[in-house]
Amino acid sequence: MTDDTLLPFSFPAIRGKKITAAFDGGRITSDGGVMVLAAAERRLGLADRLAAVICDPRDPDRVTHAMADILRARIFAIACGGACPRAGKAGPGGGCQ
Fold this sequence. Notes:
By secondary structure, this protein is α+β, with helices and mostly antiparallel strands. It has a domain at 27-79. It has 3 helices and 2 strands, in the order E-E-H-H-H. It has helices at residues 32-44, 46-53, 67-79; strands at residues 9-14, 17-21. It has a two-stranded antiparallel ribbon with strand order 1-2. The longest helix is centred in the middle third of the chain and has 13 residues, at 32-44. The N and C termini lie far apart (46 Å).
């Protein structure tokens, strides 16, 4: 029987603070990186800047989700490994290149 227990992994101290990585967290998320991505996106305003230059032909009176929110959701979905919703579709704009 193999022992799959991982010991804590220590890093050099930074400014007098001890840093240790342990892998005994039980049920934890692996999507912590999306939180960093969201913070960076908020700080840089990428989705808002992209939405400002994309023509939105939708009727403003019937719009529920702003273009920036749609872009933000798509960016985060791709970053988390989400499949392209147009993958395998033929015709103009088909597939996600």
